[in-house]
Amino acid sequence: MSTQPDIHLYTASTMNGWKPLIFLEEAEVEYNLTPIDFSKKDQKSEWYMKLNPNGRIPTIVDLSNDNFVVFESGAILWYLAEKYGKFLPKEEKSRSQALQWLMFQMGGVGPMMGQAMYFQRIAEPQGHHEEFSIKRYVQESRRLLEVLDKQLEGKTYLLGDEFSIADIATYPWARSYYWAKVSVDGLENLQAWFECIDNRPRTQRALEIPKPFPAFFGKGDVATAESANADRFKTDVKS
Q1: CA distance 143 to 159
Q2: Quick one: which of 8, 65, 148, 153 could link to 32 by a disulfide (CB 3.0–4.6 Å)?
Q3: Do 107 and 58 lie in a common domain?
Q4: Residue 180 sits in a domain of what CATH number?
Q5: What is the rounded distance in angstroms from the CA atom of residue 221 to the CA atom of residue 190?
């Protein structure tokens, strides 16, 4: 008798979209995957928005828990960590620290770097050069990376020696500093952390799913990728 995996994941190749993929690959958990095609506006379709009313990715459905739906990437990581007992400390204070750094990514690193990317990689190629906005988000992104660098002093991972959901959440964003045009010069602890996670085969496999986007990391044909990315999101701002 065949059984299906508990988790059905709906996602795309973005920094937030890779988070549950990294968890599931690292935890060696089987899952079913439905890629979300932004060019077809899958994330705004009626069927998808019944799962995720915000019309964003990622979303999971836990088939083993009455088809329970979880959206928002940080909430998904927390749910998966508790379900599988992976990448989340059991000790109370350490568990709180994991949540704090997860929220630091969700409330700071992601939004700030995301805006730095938007104004430089999407708005600017369409003729909207907003110098004040670019400076604001690039400088704030750099400040947040400096906070990470300080936290990583003397540590392998954000919480110490153990890989956690805080690392899973933060890595795809921080590692995409090239796409945000934010310098990591002088941030030696951060760069060592990048190298450490760069060498985790399962995390790197996750970054190839649903399809790779090497331009985020300064690899491949960046110009073509930038043009395609700008075109993909050109209708985001309504006139």
Answers
A1: 20
A2: 8
A3: no
A4: 1.20.1050.10
A5: 25
Mean pLDDT of the chain: 95
| 138/118 Cα distance (integer angstroms) | 11
Indicate if the alpha-carbon torsion angle 198, 19, 232, 121 is positive or negative: negative
**Cβ-based neighbours of 173, under 8 Å, separated by 6 or more:** 15, 105, 109, 110, 113, 114
Kindly state whether residues 217 and 174 are assigned to the same domain: yes
Residue recorded with tokens 């399809």: 211
- SS3 call for 73: helix
Question: Are 72 and 15 contained in the same domain?
Answer: yes
Q: What is the pLDDT of residues 1-55, one digit of tens each?
A: 458 999 999 999 999 999 999 999 999 999 999 999 999 999 999 999 999 999 9
Asked whether residue 35 is assigned to any structural domain, the reply reads: yes
Does 238 map to a domain? no
Instruction: Write the pLDDT tens digit of every residue in 130-178.
Output: 999 999 999 999 999 999 999 999 999 999 999 999 999 999 999 999 9
Residue 150 falls inside a structural domain: yes
CA 76 to CA 95: how far, in whole Å? 16
